[in-house]
Design a protein that fits this description.
The complex is a heterodimer of chains A (113) and B (117). Chain A is 0% helix and 50% strand. Chain A is an all-beta fold. In chain B, strands 2, 4, 5, 6, 9, 10 and 11 form a 7-stranded mixed sheet that branches. Chain B has a 4-stranded antiparallel sheet with strand order 1-3-8-7, with no helix packed on it. Classes of the chains: A mainly beta (113), B mainly beta (117).
Chain lengths: 113, 117
């Protein structure tokens, strides 16, 4: 079945550092891919999405490109801020997932001032 | 944008009692809603898919008699944790899909932290 694998955390960076959180997926066909963010004690917010190969999703300085050849959707940000500290989830929605979103395990990001 | 309201945001109950959590889509109709459970520092585990006007579909290993789901209208789904025990303590999150939106029209509630003492 469909699955999502993302790099384990926690990830700790200094403010203004470059961020990469790796995400790879296994799915039949062409799934839609997402990054969600969860701030402490809150629900999930959609950060960005891409629905077809080579699409680039972007929001709040974060970017991720849908790479079908490597089945990846890595999250990047050029200069992180303390306010970016949160848990980030990679996810997919595909034809074989029966209307369900499949989540990765989540990566906890902490940014030091 | 689409908003999902989840209530209560936190609840403490005694062991053996039942707790109801509500999930409402505020500005859209949702024929399908999802209920997730999240343990500390872990990912979301899908518990069940709630379908308006029909029985919920539970994931393998989820006790349907313990986690009762009702989706009586296009804007409201409820999850009732019956005879709660301390091991049911967790963060519960609902998600609703906008019936008129595309496949990625999912919106999440802010979650409910349940503590059973």
């Amino acid at each position: 079945g469909d699955s999502v694998t993302q790099m384990e955390g926690p990830v700790t960076l200094s403010e203004e550092a470059f961020l990469t959180i790796n995400c790879t997926y296994t799915a039949t066909g062409y799934p839609s891919l997402f990054w969600y963010v969860q701030y402490p004690g809150e629900g999930l917010q959609l950060l960005l999405k891409a629905t077809k190969a080579d699409d680039k999703g972007s929001n709040k300085g974060f970017e991720a490109t849908y790479r079908k050849e490597t089945t990846s959707f890595h999250l990047e940000k050029g200069s992180v801020q303390v306010s970016d500290s949160a848990v980030y989830f990679c996810a997919l929605y595909g034809y074989s997932s029966a209307s369900k979103i499949i989540f990765g395990s989540g990566t906890r990001l902490s940014i030091r001032p | 944008g689409a908003v999902v309201s989840q209530h209560p945001s936190w609840v403490i109950c005694k062991s053996g009692t039942s707790v109801k959590i509500e999930c409402r889509s505020l500005d859209f109709q949702a024929t399908t809603m999802f209920w997730y459970r999240q343990f500390p520092k872990q990912s979301l585990m899908l518990m069940a898919t709630s379908n308006e006007g029909s029985k919920a579909t539970y994931e393998q290993g989820v006790e349907k008699d313990k986690f009762l789901i009702n989706h009586a209208s296009l804007t409201l789904s409820t999850l009732t944790v019956t005879s709660a025990h301390p091991e049911d303590s967790s963060f519960y999150i609902c998600s609703a899909r906008d019936s008129m939106s595309s496949t990625y029209g999912y919106t999440f509630g802010s979650g409910t932290r349940l503590t059973v003492v």
